[in-house]
């Protein structure tokens, strides 16, 4: 009888302890990564390579995501606004929606899909094939050589990608509004620019930086802690993308609360 | 040169090493034999500090590896050839070989590092045309040679070979064995090899140690191996399914 009560509690306790241990491990991993970012030696080549793969090569997917999201948002706001004769707010709401929320979140999620998965799979494969051990025997710290350049590249490039995504998203809304909803191009742009405030743009870029760190950190963490064999690599990749996506959405909520609820 | 005293290591409830004692003298080539899963690789990784033993002491050149201050300098004494070569896919062959010479305390100018890499590649029988290829473009035997060139690139005092002939055809395995023997003698290095390829043992070893049940079961010169009065060792050497070593069928 007592076992019936204690067994679920023990299972719950074990799950909570395991979750807390994971949070602790990820936090320590993040702190170690940041320490390596600011202490020499620095691996410039690896950082430039990470800049290319995390940032530059993500531009097409970010651009495509943003343009369609902006366009769809304009159509939705026009259709919704027309129910109470507020169609004219399309430029303002598109700007607000894209810059404050959809731009950074969509870019963050696309980076989680494109970059986090690729980092996790690459590092996990390196672990499985003993390349990480080889790095250590060659007097090179894998955290410094593999993690630090990628996380720093995420921190630096994601705000830029978000800025590009925001601009293209607003352009997507402008294009749809002027081509099929009858808006005047110049007035639309003027309304957009007049409506946006510096805080909107700053929040967007800060979110980008946070999402960049989350996406790259999750890829590195799950790659470094991958299990053995092809299954281990697959599991690490899947877990990294899920963790990055969930943490990005959670961080987005917390940052929105911090920026806009005072 | 390398000394292990009562080294224990367990993963969860699974005890892998249960008190390993082993001494490898300077300039000696010692080969560790033993079945799959007996902890040969774990032992090697414990010496390198990649895995921390639960108990016991490991020293290299009289220095306890857990108290060694400069880890960079400690690791610079070692070269290692990994089982699957463990070459870095993203780097061309010459940068793999010269990896240690392109960064850290042993850093040299790029051109000099490349020259050394090409010289080491030549030493393992590969031409300069291989230098700019990527590891994925090489056969298994060539990858092992590149791995060997990387292991000797910084002229280490101690070289570890983890299953150097696994996955190679018998002729290529023979070539790699010969290369290892030549290079170890030429460099005067201390070598520790783990393998279950008995041809490799006879070609490379001065001394042989058999790891079984988490302990060194037999240790002696390779010349005494065949006449040794140890049923475990005899079963392993002859590859007989019948004997004291349990086998799954």
Describe this structure in words.
The complex is a heterodimer of chains A (262) and B (249). Chain A has one domain. In chain A, helix 4 (90-128) runs antiparallel to helix 9 (229-260). The mean pLDDT of chain A is 94. Chain A has helices spanning 2-38, 44-55, 59-81, 90-128, 131-137, 142-180, 185-195, 198-224, 229-260. Chain A has 262 residues and is mainly alpha-helical. Chain B has 249 residues and is of the alpha/beta class. Chain B has a domain at 1-71 and 192-249: P-loop containing nucleotide triphosphate hydrolases (Rossmann fold, 3-Layer(aba) Sandwich), CATH 3.40.50.300. Chain B is built from 8 helices and 10 strands. Chain B starts with a strand and ends in an 11-residue tail after the last helix. The model of chain B has no long low-confidence stretch (mean pLDDT 89).
List descriptors.
heterodimer; A: 262 residues; mainly alpha; 9 helices; B: 249 residues; alpha/beta; Rossmann fold; six-stranded mixed sheet; four-stranded antiparallel sheet; 8 helices; 10 strands; globular; cell membrane (chain A); Permease_MalE (chain A); ABC_MlaE_roteobac (chain A)
